Amino acid sequence: MAKKGTFNGPFFNSFAARIHGTPIRFGLLVGTEAEDDRLRDLVFAAPTPPRPGEDGEPTPPPKDIVALAKSKGSADFAAWARQHADALRKLLPGGLEPCGCFAVAPEADAKDLAPMLVTLLKGVSEPLVMTVDERTRKQSFWQLSGGAKPAMRPAQMKADPHKEALLLWTSTSVDVLVPQPTPREDDAADAAADALVRDVEKGVGEALASCSVGVEAAEGAPLCLVDFGSEAAVSTAVPKDCQEMRVAFLRSGSGPVSVPNPEGRPCMRQRCLLVGAAVVLRRTAELRHAVSTLRKALAACAGQRLQLALDEAEGGAKGRLQLPWRALCRPEGVDLPFWCGDYCMPDEDLGAARERLGQLLGVGESSFEAAPEHLDERAQFGRDHRGTYGPPEPEEPPAGAKKPGGGLLLPAAGCAVAVAAVLLAVLVPMVLQS
């Protein structure tokens, strides 16, 4: 029997009309991970942004994606689309991933896209393709297969409102000892930094896997421990009208976790609050698997933060790194718990996150819903870590010291450092609390 999948009806039923008359010709599909017995469930489509030209200005998007697929420029376009997929993967909630693409092309020409799409979607398991006929606005779904002769065959997809969609979320403190990376001056140093990021992600994942896990379906309700030996469905842990479930990772002890340090370099102790989210579309899914999805998303988030901090560090990291905070936003008009996150450095605000998310998701900067307080990292810093993450009390100035104009002289440099210290961060649990 052929495998079947779904697409989110409220989003995709109006998709062709929304892009009609725009220059959008290509983009990525976002959906659930592949399963053995069914196709993916699609929830979103993100237009691929224009490539930057030699002068830094965006180049015009392709007018005919089929003609591009047959041209010599297809390889460059595929490479750019893969970069878009890599960036998109980092901002999605757990349980969702780039899983295919859409193209504005007649149904009869779909097969001509296959060779380019096989290269573009390399590494994606059982990718799906949606074509949109510009004249008729008909949407068709395809399964892409590689091999010696890339091919597209019709996919059995049906509309689904995904009314059972559930958000799993957690707010978890982490603590880790990280070897000081060397200055990134050559390929060897870059490789060492990448290895450190992988070690941290692995360490966070292992530390979370060693925790007992409790879930809470309503605020103030007692935690119910998750039995990882049970095949119980998500539906057994939440009432039908529940739309969110808090997950708590519980661990006794207070020692920070160390990552490998074969060279015996000096270590930095990094602490951070990680707010993570994952999406479950069908509550028949096993609860243990849903929690594991959230755990993997948290571990990946830890590694991504460290990667960005190392990229931003100048002259190597000494002492502590300035780790980014994560801003969660949801595109307006999406009924699902589709909370996407962008990493912001301490001197950036929510506006910077919305700008970048808008470019990657194809949504206007003003068309995002801000996260509620329990998904807002910055709000939690001020609420739960006041005095720890906030600026220290200013030192008393020397007697008689005055600012120009007669005011007291304040330690401006110290204040700047204190503001940057609000979000020092990251990785493997010392006390994992929710």
- The domain count comes to 2
Q: Termini separation (Å)?
A: 44 Å
Supply Rg. Answer: 24 Å
Assembly status:
single chain
Low-confidence stretches: 388-395, 402-434
Proportion of residues in helical segments: 25-40%
- Give me the strand/helix succession: EHHEEHHEHEEEEEHEEEEEHEEHEHH
> How many β strands by DSSP?
17
Quick check: average pLDDT?
A: 86
Number of contiguous helices: 10
Spatial ordering of strands, largest sheet: 7-6-5-4-2-3-1-8
| Biggest sheet statistics | 8 strands, mixed
Could you say which structural class the secondary elements and strand pairing correspond to?
Answer: alpha/beta
Shape: globular
Strand content: 15-25%
What attributes does this structure have?
434 residues; alpha/beta; Cytidine Deaminase, domain 2; 6-stranded mixed β-sheet; 10 helices; disordered C terminus; membrane; transmembrane helix; ODR-4-like; transmembrane
Summarize, please.
This protein is α/β, with parallel strands linked by helices and 434 residues long. The protein is 27% helix and 25% strand.
What does the model show?
The structure is a single chain. This protein has 434 residues and is of the alpha/beta class. The protein folds into two domains: 4-160, Cytidine Deaminase, domain 2 (3-Layer(aba) Sandwich); 166-386, no CATH class. The chain is 27% helix and 25% strand. The protein is built from ten helices and 17 strands. The chain has helices spanning 9-12, 15-19, 65-70, 74-91, 114-120, 187-209, 287-312, 350-361, 377-384, 412-420, and strands spanning 4-8, 26-32, 41-47, 96-104, 128-132, 139-145, 151-154, 156-160, 166-179, 212-216, 224-225, 244-250, 257-258, 267-280, 325-331, 340-344, 368-370. The strands form three sheets. Strands 7-6-5-4-2-3-1-8 form an eight-stranded mixed sheet. Strands 9, 10, 11, 12, 13 and 14 form a six-stranded mixed sheet that branches. The longest helix is centred in the C-terminal third of the chain and has 26 residues, at 287-312. The chain is globular and about 60 Å long. It starts with a strand and ends in a 14-residue tail after the last helix. 40% of the residues are buried. Residues 388-395 and 402-434 have low confidence and may be disordered.
